[in-house]
Amino acid sequence: MKKAYEGHEVVYQKMRKKGIHTWGQKGGAKTVVSCIPETRRFLKDVLAQPWAPPKGRVIEFGCGTGPLLRHICERGFTGVGVDISKTAIAMAREQSRSLDIKFIQGDVCNLNKRALGRFDIVIDGLCLHCITDAKDRKAYFRNVFKVLKNDGIFILLTMCGPINRKRLLELYKDQKIVKKVIYLPFDKKGYKGLSMFNGEPYLPTRYIGHWKDILKELYRSGFEPKLIRYKASNREDCCGTLTVGALKNDNRN
């Protein structure tokens, strides 16, 4: 059985057929400008901090087609990108030929950490909110902790709550939200976590935890947030966003 987030492969296959280069792309097929200007500003602000490494190795969990990783590697870092989707990885390689980046298809909740080595920076490429299972989320944080150097930093970029449930259902009438999980109609079999609503199968696609609860997850997993920005939901975005620059804390109880 496939995990729910392996359904991203279906999305990337559709993107490739349509000529879309990266998730969140605006404009036509030839436009490669994606919706990440705020994310880029946050990366710049984190890297400007005295506790941030000026250079080194960076790995992105959930890299997609690699726009964030390319952005940081253009600043002198060497990179590794990991994504569950083989199509996303193929697209990332095509778009990153001029940079020192290695792309690997893999499950961020089940990594060969010894083969990867250690990194100065781990970036969550808007990946965590796609992991809806509690055990997988714990495994995810363990893997971030294990591959990060003791003086390294973890940059988390994630959707969060409080969620505007009314607005969500206005924008996405076919979706369901149960507790903190968003479900999408999904007619393909063989995926874990499929739930039936009104006799139809739905796949859990997003975990929208409250931003305070996500910070608690970070603390429990051995990270000390140093730079935090929270943006509440609004009429355009029914979910909030949480961006965190955190240090590894190996002295947790």
Plain-language structure description:
The structure is a single chain. The protein has 253 residues and is an alpha/beta fold. The chain has one domain (4-18, 37-248): 3-Layer(aba) Sandwich (Rossmann fold). 29% of the residues lie in helices and 29% in strands. It has eight helices and eleven strands. It has helices at 8-18, 37-47, 67-73, 86-95, 113-116, 134-147, 165-171, 211-220; strands spanning 57-61, 78-83, 101-105, 119-125, 148-160, 176-178, 181-185, 195-197, 200-207, 223-231, 240-248. Strands 3-2-1-4-5-11-10 form a seven-stranded mixed beta sheet, sandwiched between helices. A hairpin with a 2-residue loop joins strand 6 and strand 7 (181-185). Helix 1 (8-18) packs across helix 4 (86-95). Mean pLDDT is 90; it is low at 27-35.
List the defining traits of the structure above:
7-stranded mixed sheet; alpha/beta; 4-stranded antiparallel sheet; 253 residues; 29% strand; Rossmann fold; 8 helices; globular
Name the CATH superfamily assignment.
Vaccinia Virus protein VP39
What is the strand tally?
Answer: 11
Number of helices: 8
Tally of structural domains? 1
What proportion of the residues form beta strands (DSSP E)? 25-35%
Distance separating the two termini: 36 Å
Overall shape: it is globular
Tell me which CATH architecture applies here.
3-Layer(aba) Sandwich
- Which class best fits the helix and strand makeup? alpha/beta
Largest sheet: 7 strands, mixed
Radius of gyration: 18 Å
Strand arrangement in the largest pleated sheet: 3-2-1-4-5-11-10
CATH topology: Rossmann fold
Mean pLDDT comes to: 90
Low-confidence stretches: 27-35
What share of residues is helical?
A: 25-40%
Order of SSEs: HHEHEHEHEHEHEEEEHEE
Query: In CATH, what is the class?
Result: Alpha Beta
